[in-house]
Each structure stands twice: as structure tokens, then as C-alpha cells.
Amino acid sequence: MPFHGVLPERRFLFDAAEPAADIGVSDGAAWRLNPAHRWVYNKLELALSQGLVAAPAGVEPAELGLGAGEPVFVRPITNLAGMAIGAHKAQAGGVAHVPGTFWCRYLEGEQSSTDCLVRDGEVVWFAHTVAGDEWVDGRPVYWRIGVERPANERILSEWVAANLPGYTGICNFELIGATLIEAHLRGSNGFFDFYGPGFVPAWAALVDEGVWRDPGPLPGGYLFSLFSRHGEKVGLDLGAVPDAGEEGVTVALDLDGTGRPANGRVAVIRSRDHPAGRRTLERLRAALGE
Question: Which domain of life does the protein's organism represent (predicted)?
């Protein structure tokens, strides 16, 4: 199967199509397969393309006009093995000079994630997801998939046309407010469950044939994350939690090979509606002692 970088537990999502072309599903595969456009993974260049005040480690924020008490966001310039690893908020006067990182002015506002299908530098399809109002250590507890964001569509259509000429395939963009903060040459496959059965075949046909077949309405839904405060092995038995997977809800553990939380997340809950997902999250929190 020419979908590259698919996690074994997510392979079922890609059974609906067998494209002839090689298509990257992970960041590593997408970077390897798209040499002409892989520059988007340089988040410093992406920030500068948005007109943000930003610079690599070694350039003091004060040199670019920021006061010592102003907040900045510090991140790796490129990190394909987990784009958010090492990201943190700091004060401009106390930014550590860590090699390979950069800082930019701290942004506030709605955080959104948009998957786009693109044909020759033109966006032909959007799927918008918005972070919820509950956060743990800078990460949203839930995402709402399938919202309307026409303002984002205008921003992203113009950006893709200007910066990804000739590109055909899928890409993902993360925004805070109206500012683009991350770009990926793959989609958010954690959300693909809510895009409908026509999505993967339409994506494959677009890449293989350059033909756009509208996959139909976006069903939408919610993705909840169960985070743990503990770094040790997590003894969470989904089978022992009453109604852990009620109708319209699926639950999957998110643990590394040693049984520890994957980046602090213990489980992922996907639900067609918010109340059912929330009930499941609270049951799992109780079972875990969170």
C-alpha cells in the first residue's frame, strides 16, 4: 500500500483506496516524498512568512524590540518526531539559548487545525477543527471536528496559492486566531474518522488522476484526550470501565511500548457528540484516579 507512515492501529482508515502514487501520512514520510515543498517544516521561516517577530536561539528578543517581561513562545525550528515536543512559553528576558530552537512573539486566540486537499496549488476541500475550552499543560482536552471557518478558508487559500505552487495532495495547517503557526504536508489522521467514507477515495483520486470528486458532507464529531499526571506505567483496563465505549464512542489507549503515557496522553476518545464523549472521559478519569 503506497500510504507511507501509517500507524498499525490506524491502517483501517486507508482500506477504502489503493493509490498508485506514494502518499505520506506521517511527517517523516511527507518530508521525504515532497522535496520541493518540505521547507514548510521550518517553523521559523513559517513564522517570518507571517510577519511575526521571531528569531533563532542566539538572537535576544530585546534586539528586536521586545521588553524583558513580554511573553514569547519557544519551539524547535524543525522536529518531525513530534512537532510540539520541547515547546514552551517563556519571558523575553529569560529565553534559553538551546540549539535548534527559535522564539516568536506569543499569540493568543482560538486554536484551530485545518486539513486541506489541494490540486496544483489550489485548495479544493477544507476540514476545520477547533480546540475546546479545557486545557492540560498547554494542550486541549478536546477538539471539535467539522466546524465552519470561512475566514480561515480565505487565509489558507491565499497562503497555499502563494507558497505551494504545483503541490497536489493533503496538507494541514494550525492557526492561532488568524495567524498560521504550523504547516504539514500530511493530514491530521487522528481526525479522519469524522471525514466520511468518501474522503480517502477522493484524496487518492486527486493525487493519482488530478481529478476532484467531492466526498460529500463532513459528518464531524469530537476527539477527547485523557492526560495523566503520572509518568509511571498506567494500569488502565478499558474492559473494566463500565460503558467505556457507549454507542457512538470509541476508546483507544495511547501508551508507548513500556506502558507509559504517550506524551502524557493515556487514551483517545472519539465520539459523535460532546456529551457522550465527556461522560466517557470522566469515567476513565475516575478509573485512573485523575
Answer: Bacteria
Average pLDDT of the chain is 90
pLDDT digits (tens, 9 = 90+) for 119-148: 999 999 999 999 999 988 778 999 999 999
pTM of the complete model: 0.91
CA-to-CA distance for 243 and 266, rounded, in angstroms?
A: 18
Could you give the angle at the alpha carbon of 125 between the alpha carbons of 124 and 130, nearest 5°? 145
In 151-261 the beta strands, taken as DSSP E runs, fall at 169-176, 179-184, 221-227, 249-253
Pair 113, 129: CB distance under 8 Å: yes
Q: What are phi and psi of 255, to 5 degrees?
A: -120, 150
The contacts of residue 207 (CB under 8 Å, 6+ apart) are 19, 21, 23, 168, 169
Q: Position of cell 504550523?
A: 182
Q: Which CATH number is correct for 6-21+30-35+110-209, 3.20.20.80, 3.30.470.20, 3.90.180.10, 3.40.50.2300?
A: 3.30.470.20
CA triple 84-133-219, angle to 5 deg: 85
How far, in Å, CA of 223 to CA of 145, rounded? Answer: 8
Torsion of Cα atoms, 8 then 13 then 19 then 23, to 10°: -60
